Amino acid sequence: MTAIDIDNERLPRHIAIIMDGNGRWAKRRNQPRVFGHRQGAKSVRKVVEAAARLGINNLTLYAFSTENWNRPKHEIKTLMKLLVNALKNELGLMMKNNIRLNAIGHTDMMPTNVQQELQEVLDETKENSGLVLTLALSYGARQEILRAVQEISHKVKNNIISVENVDDNIINKHLYTQNLPDVDLLIRTSGEVRISNFLLWQIAYAELYFTDELWPDFNETSLHKAITDYQKRERRFGKTSEQITG
Questions:
Q1: Is 85 labeled as catalytic in the residue annotation?
Q2: Rounded mean pLDDT of 155-182?
Q3: Set 7, 8, 20, 159: catalytic member
Q4: Which of 4, 51, 111, 137 lies in disulfide reach of 105, CB 3.0 to 4.6 Å?
């Protein structure tokens, strides 16, 4: 698949990706997991550049989940180091491609040096007007929804919001993704067919695309293939085909 096969008039506004398979990719090559994570970082660069070239408005990557804190300490340390290096090394790429970095999740749980580097890149790119690249860091969808419910409940209790006015819009405003549109296309690599606590509210009407490719093998062609598949689907949002086609 190439960009020529893609209808630029029907691009997904928001693509989210569960980047899975770094460890298995390394294991198949008799290498330590960190080797897979390093190769996975290269795939991130390829996919981000490809999305920017296509004119995708929003790309959200599941970089580190709340559950990932349960991994071995040495692996977490390696992942944090890779994240800091990526933020430092890719700032030039983001500025060159007019990419604005965004972050969602319980980011205050990240190590201090990660938080500092992240904030620097957020500040440096905040005026960029192209692709919004969102990193989900220490993120879990259930925790996000719980946090929103608690905040809304507090406001109802203090008569800031009335119960009758709590609707989809109010909930959206209390999510980490309040400034992002709903996800149109969710991609998961490595052959796993599950959501893994990622953007549960935001993917309510997303098209789901699963591929057997491990994340380090996912590239620009892979992204084009996923978008082409998305564009072949009829998005009805609860309506009938006849209502959509008019």
A1: no
A2: 97
A3: 20
A4: 137
Query: Mean pLDDT over residues 160-168, rounded?
Result: 96
Q: Quote the tokens at residue 96.
A: 């060159």
Structure-block tokens of residue 45: 């660069």
Predicted TM-score of the model (pTM):
0.93
Q: Taking every pair of C-alpha atoms in the chain, what is the biggest distance, in angstroms? A: 60
Domain tally, the chain: 1
68 is catalytic: yes
Range of the domain at 100: 3-140+182-232
Q: Which of 68, 97, 172, 197 is catalytic?
A: 68
Q: Is 21 helix (H, G, I), strand (E, B) or coil?
A: coil
Return all residues near 164 (Cβ < 8 A) that are at least 6 apart. none
Rama region for 198: left / alpha / beta (φ>0; ψ in -120 to 50; rest): beta
Give the mean model confidence (pLDDT) for residues 16-23.
Answer: 97
Closest CA to 46 of 61, 32, 33, 31: 61
Residue-wise pLDDT for 41-75, tens only, equals: 999 999 999 999 999 999 999 999 999 999 999 99
Report yes or no on 244 lying in a domain.
Answer: no
Judge contact between 185 and 227, C-beta under 8 A.
yes
